[in-house]
Specification:
The chain is an alpha+beta fold. The chain has helices at 16-39, 46-59, 132-150, 158-171, and strands at residues 63-64, 81-85, 88-90, 105-110, 112-114, 117-118, 121-126, 175-176, 182-184, 191-195, 212-215, 218-220, 226-228, 235-237, 243-245, 248-252, 257-259. It has four helices and 17 strands. Bound molecules: 2-amino-4-trifluoromethylsulfanyl-butyric acid and cobalt (II) ion (2 copies). One cobalt (II) ion is lined by residues 109, 111, 120, 122, 216, 247.
Length: 272
């Protein structure tokens, strides 16, 4: 048996049996976001969103992978999901003191773990009425994720994803966050390969069937650079400009890609 150190491990590749489990947890993750979408309105707190994720996850017999993550850390993440409002790029911590206001945008990122498998997905919601330029940022961020996913096919390369996202987002006048990336996922939450949301076509690892990872572009209205606040988690844009994000967990198939965090019958149109 060759010894393989953690750092040398290849990309997450899943079997058909693993993928059946990933579809199950992925559909559940999607249902969490569907339910959260229904409750988003001015006046609710990000803590109430977290409470819903906690309750539904327990009811399903699942676990919230963000709670206490990463294990053994001095500052483990304290909640069941991430809620990132306005200039928060990612990893916002839900709080009962944070009330959503008309015109806010909020990304909710959930990662339930069921039978040992992870489903990682997020959406950015608009609270009440938002300015046209803010709506444009949110819609362009969704489109950049869609184009990143559409770039995945066997024989292609990881850099094709970043290229598709960067070209679109920058062409629309936004910037792409570089400090955070998509990641291999399965029985582990964050594994290889790293899926940068910027890049050049044909670069990086080659896609092979069963490779399973997230695509989760964070797109800013201003500067792409970020900083982490004193709570050790909350990531904000360096210029405090607005930031949006969407995320799906996907797997490479024989002839393209399958989105695991959408249930059957809710396919995303991937024509470019
Ligand atoms: N769900 C996030 C991702 O997309 C990770 C959150 S880790 C946490 O990778 F600890 F911040 F919750
Ligand atoms: Co996530
Ligand atoms: Co992720």
């Amino acid at each position: 048996m060759p010894r393989r150190g953690k750092a040398r491990k290849g990309p997450v590749r899943l079997t058909p049996e693993d993928l059946e489990k990933m579809r199950e947890v992925g559909a559940f993750a999607c249902s969490l976001l569907d339910e959260i979408e229904q409750m988003i309105e001015p006046g609710i707190t990000t803590g109430a969103i977290d409470d819903l994720v906690d309750a539904r996850t327990q009811k399903r017999g699942a676990i919230s992978a963000t709670l206490g993550y990463p294990k053994g850390s001095a500052h483990p993440f304290p909640k069941h999901c991430c809620t990132s409002v306005n200039n928060v790029v990612c990893h916002g911590i839900p709080s009962h003191n944070h009330v959503l206001r008309d015109g806010d945008i909020i990304n909710v990122d959930v990662t339930p773990k069921l039978d040992g498998y992870h489903g990682d997905t997020s959406r950015t919601f608009m609270v009440g009425g938002v300015d046209p330029e803010v709506r444009r940022l949110v819609e362009d961020t969704f489109e950049s994720m869609r184009r990143g996913i559409a770039a995945v096919k066997p024989g292609g390369h990881v850099g094709d994803i970043g290229h598709a996202i960067q070209t679109f987002a920058e062409g629309r006048g936004h910037s792409v966050v570089r400090q955070f990336a998509g990641h291999g996922i399965g029985k582990i939450f964050h594994g290889p390969p790293t899926i940068s949301h910027v890049g050049s076509p044909g670069s990086g690892e080659m896609f092979v069937p069963g490779m399973t990872f997230t695509v989760e572009p964070m797109i800013n209205m201003g500067d792409w650079r970020c900083q982490i606040l004193g709570d050790h988690w909350t990531v904000v844009t360096i210029d405090r400009s607005l930031s949006a994000q969407f995320e799906h967990t996907i797997t490479v198939t024989e002839d393209g890609v399958e989105i695991l965090t959408l249930p059957e019958g809710r396919e995303l149109d991937l024509t470019v």
